[in-house]
Every structure is written in structure tokens, then in C-alpha cells.
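re: ur question from earlier - yeah i can do the single chain one, its not a big deal. heres the input i used so u can compare w yours
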Amino acid sequence: MKKILRTVYSKPAADDDDDYSPWAGRARKAEKKKAPEKPVFTKREPREEIDPPWLKTISSLATEKGREKEGLFLAEGARVVAEISQYHKDLVRGIYVDESFDNEDLRQKIKDARLRISSLTPAQMKQVSAVVSGQGIFAVCRMASEKPNFDTAHTITLVDAVQDPGNLGSIFRNAVGFGVDGIILGRGTVDPFNPKVVRGSSGCFLRTPFETSIDLKERFSLLRQKGFCIVATSPYAKKSITDLTPRQSKKIALLIGNEGSGTNRQVSELADDWVKIPMANELESLNVAVAHGVLSYQIAQMRGL
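and the output i got, formated as C-alpha cells:
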């Protein structure tokens, strides 16, 4: 007798899907089709412009630390850029103008100097407006200066802790106008590459050789070795600068001081002589840049300039 083999199919476990056919084997779980979701349209945000690296560099030049790090400074304004382009074009790293800048004469001078001009968008100009004052043009320049030659110089200005950028800029202008051969900036004096100093000097500050962050008391020794007479200003002095002897006036190092407190007493006491500016009426003092201008003019007159 043949054995009859009976195949027994059992129902799947409870957790299996009901779509199960014992005759066709285990069916694949049917995927329920979901209705496609309706797309949701949102307003596209405008794409943010990525600021070029030089914008950050320009912003950093507002600080002395940033200028020292980059080795660059700002020359702002039409007159300043014209000056730098004419006398120091080798220092210029870039000239930037806003789109509305229409000084064609200056554009031509820059072109003649073979310097490139880049235009800024209003947004870019706005970003650097915290650094520049909106005159529509500025140059980024390399920091450099020529040191005074004490062997050939006849007139030197010593600056003791002048802190107002506008005053220092004017002192540089006086130096160019009256033939000062060099400027020594003592410790505590504002940075000569400060944008306000550059603007206050009309950009001509680089025409006068200078050195900065100098211990003035130490520098006195070198100046005396080179034949200079160190002259300080004082409202209590008995004579004016024109009363100096021919020997004293041959080589003059003029010491001027801080706007509020004047020259540091420990420094001024080391001078070789003291002078005052004669005035028609009683006045405690003149602005430091004005006083420097008057004295520099008198020295120039003594030299026949």
C-alpha cells in the first residue's frame, strides 16, 4: 500500500500580513500606494553675496593692530589719492571708487601713473563707510617711510605724545611747507598711518622722512653728536627762536608737546634752550600744530627760505 503524503499548510503567525496565499507560496507584502503630496511653494530668499576678502582687510585698517598685521594703510579722498599717486605710486596696492565717482581729471592722472581703479557697488561702499568718510575714492597702500638723515638735515621736529590725528597731520603739512628735514615721533604719539593723520596731511606725510615710537631722551644723545641744538617751547621762556645764536641755529631740533599738558617735563628739561612765541595779547597757549607752523616758518626765514 502506497503511503499518501499529505502536505499541511499552516496559517502564518498573527503578525504576518493577511495577503498570504498557501497555493502560491508566501506573497510579497503589498505596498500601499500613497497619494503624491502637493508641492508647497515658498518665497525664495535672495542669495547672500559673499564679501570679497579685501573688504575685511580694508575694515581692519581702521585699527593700528590691523595696519601692523597687513602692512597696509588707507589714503582717502581725491586730494590724498592724487598726492600718493604722484609721489608714491610704488606704494599703491589698489585704488577704489564708488560707481558715481566722476572726477575725470583724477581718473586720468591715475591712468597716467599706470595704476588700476576698481569700482565698488553701493553695498560694498556702505560696508567700508565705517573706515572711510564717503569721499568716493580711496587707495590701499603699503606702509613705508624714509628715515631722517641726521648728517645732512638742518631742521628736525621732535613730537612728544601728540595724540590728535588732525594735529599730527597738520604738523606733517607744516614740515613739507617749511622745509623741515625730518620728524621724530616720540612714544605716545598717534600712529602716522592712522587714516585721519593721512587725510589731515593731505597725503603729503610721506614726503618728510620720519621715525616713530622713539624714546626722545635717548634720541637727544644722537642729535647732539650730529651737531643739533635741542630747542623746547615754554610760555616762561625769555626769548624767541629768532634770538638763538648762529651756532645754535645752524642745526635745530625743535621739541613740541602734547595738546593738553604740553611737553613732558622730564623731556623738556633736557633741552639745550627754551623759546616762546611772542603774541600781542595774553593767551595761555596756541594749538600745537599752529605753534609748530609759526616756529617752522620762523626757522625757514632764518635760513633764507
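The longest helix spans residues 288-302. not sure if urs matches, ping me
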